[in-house]
Design goal:
Arc Repressor Mutant, subunit A, two-stranded antiparallel ribbon, DUF2087 domain-containing protein
Length: 102
């Protein structure tokens, strides 16, 4: 996971404005904001595309980023950012986002 850049003010389009001390307390209500936050946190928790990880490993990573790691994991799957095996044992990120480092 990459560190957040130090910035006194975050612009209106910056998903980091929903984080408190680097942690997402609750998902934003507006779809556009929810999508941006989910894409940003997916890139932080799963920086390598197609790298498989167990459900527990992903949940542990998301716990460092959000108060509801299971809800965040579900949102990433629902938005198509993350795929999982049929039994939910393994997850991998399939979509590059605007928040990925080159």
């Amino acid at each position: 996971m990459t560190a957040e850049p130090a910035s006194a003010e975050k612009s209106a389009g910056d998903p980091r404005r929903f984080l408190r001390s680097g942690l997402l307390d609750s998902m934003p209500r507006r779809w556009r904001d929810k999508l941006a936050v989910t894409r940003y946190l997916a890139a932080r928790a799963m920086p390598v595309l197609l790298e498989p990880m167990t459900e527990r490993e992903l949940t542990d990573r998301l716990r460092e980023l959000a108060r509801d790691p299971v809800g965040l994991r579900r949102a990433m799957v629902d938005q198509g950012l993350v795929q999982r095996t049929r039994d939910g044992a393994e997850y991998w990120r399939t979509e590059r986002t605007e928040y990925d480092e080159s």
